[in-house]
Design brief:
The complex is a heterodimer of chains A (324) and B (290). Chain A is an all-alpha fold and 324 residues long. Helices cover 75% and strands 1% of the residues of chain A. The chains are: A mainly alpha (324), B mainly alpha (290).
Chain lengths: 324, 290
Amino acid sequence: MRQLVILAVVFAFIAAAPAIITSEFTQNVIIMVLYAALLGQAWNILGGYGGQFSFGHAAYFGTGAYTVAVLQVQLGVNPWIGLVIGALFSMAVAAFIGFATFRYGLRGSYFALVTLAFAEVLRILSNSVGFTGAGVGILIPLAPGAANMQFETKTGFFFLIWVLTLSSFLVVWWIGHSRFGASLAAVRDNEDAARALGVNAFRVKMGAIMLSGLFSGLAGIFYAQYFLYLDPYIAYGPAISVESLLVPIIGGMGTLFGPLLGAAALHVVSEATRELIGDVPGISLALYGALLVVMVMFMPRGLAGLLARLGVRRRAASGEMPRA
Amino acid sequence: MPDLAIIVPSLLNGLTTGALYALIALGLTLIYGVLHIINFAHGALLMVGLYAVWFLNTRLGIDPYVALLIVPPAMFVLGYGLQRGIIGRASHGRDENILLVTLGLSIVIENLALYFFRSDTRIVDTPYSFETVEFLGAFLPLPKVIAFFGALISAAALWLVMSKTDLGRAIRAIARERKGAQLVGINADHVYAMSFGLGIACLGVAACLLLPSYYVTPSVGHGFVLIAFTIVVLGGMGSFVGALIGGLIIGVVEALGGLFLGESLGQIGIFVIFILVLMFRPQGLLGHKV
């Protein structure tokens, strides 16, 4: 319950931001942090809570993004309807990949490899077929208006991503307090033991990958509407897969607030490097990689773990018992 | 349906490429067999080797085949250092961490290369680049023929190291039974790093053999890395002969797939094999149960 109160306070606080901050630049920063938090929370469901490390979350992101874009450009479908269809498609792709891998008990290195390969297959396919615009990419025509999910002000986009991100956090809060979440954690910590206790590991992992794919797809849909342009490399390329896992790893895998902390930290760091070094090709991704190595080496529990440790120390100092 | 006059050269071409794939995959399977992790930085490290060969050739005028004396040992040292200094330390005893660290390393290496070398395609110019050899009515580029035999000889040399030397025995002992090997006095950290170094040295050899008939860009490793994974999975993780056969098969599939489906869709064939094998026979053609 305490977590839910903190969650409500944090998101209410964020919701007040556009009323106070009128600078478009700062509003954009907040939007991008929320977007990264959504992307990271999606990975966190499967990777952090489920212990299945996906290296190819771009598969779901790209499917959501391409669905909403292709439906609009080729068939004239309204993006709000596209959002629903895109989310379902992302979930379906996740279900397919999950079925194909979990059915045969692939874990660890194997799972990481297969997810990476699926994302690559989708990238090559979207680069080869006509209706995605192939290598040229796809441009969503400008049609300002809330009805077309192309808000005229940043505030509109802000509330869209605020709702999407909040919903992912609520689902993760539910995971942390439900029987499903307990089963998922059991599978993560020791799959064989969980099975012996009667947990249907396959079904639990399928649930996790589908939820994960759903939110990744929503992030992709938001991306498509916000930037109005996609190409195979943006949608299915490795950058999205890496960002998806980096955010919760920095913030703290398997924690509710980890992805938000991670998204904010990642944004601060990458903006700071851009200020210091300038916009040089390669540098920002090199930094992502270096951060990944450094976090795993020195802070495997992420920022949330660091905060928890500080909290424990403070409570211990005041004579209160630390809570498990 | 293209006739034999097109299929045979394509097949031979596939075999020569396949031998190089096999060499790259051997490095990967060696590392997997011992450390039980997939080195996601494999492609990026191959790219480092290729740039080293390119640099030696264009700046110091050293022939790529002479560079065989310099690049593989340097790559060995690099691999040893990476394992000892970064990968081994970051594991905290969990395989997932090693996966993440090698992924992180690959991103760092690739993007630093992008920063330093830009995304321009670089090639080396050798007097024999355009020489050909006639075989079964097909004209094969000389560098590809040299690469084919070079890769097979290197594979044989690696097999000798693994089966006849003390180092090879120590590596196999650690791979099979870590605690037991440590009890009889084998330094596990050292052996891990030696295995990683050997695996990366294979990439150094492959780079020297590859560059005369190929090119290098910062992202050149991408193409190879999934191919090498596919071969290793196809041949069975940690299986030596499997990697060799798998490499040749993939080389041929790629060449024929390219012939019948076109370059970009031809690659899909490899992924399809990869995913099918992982799903239905994750232990590979020759491997044991995972």
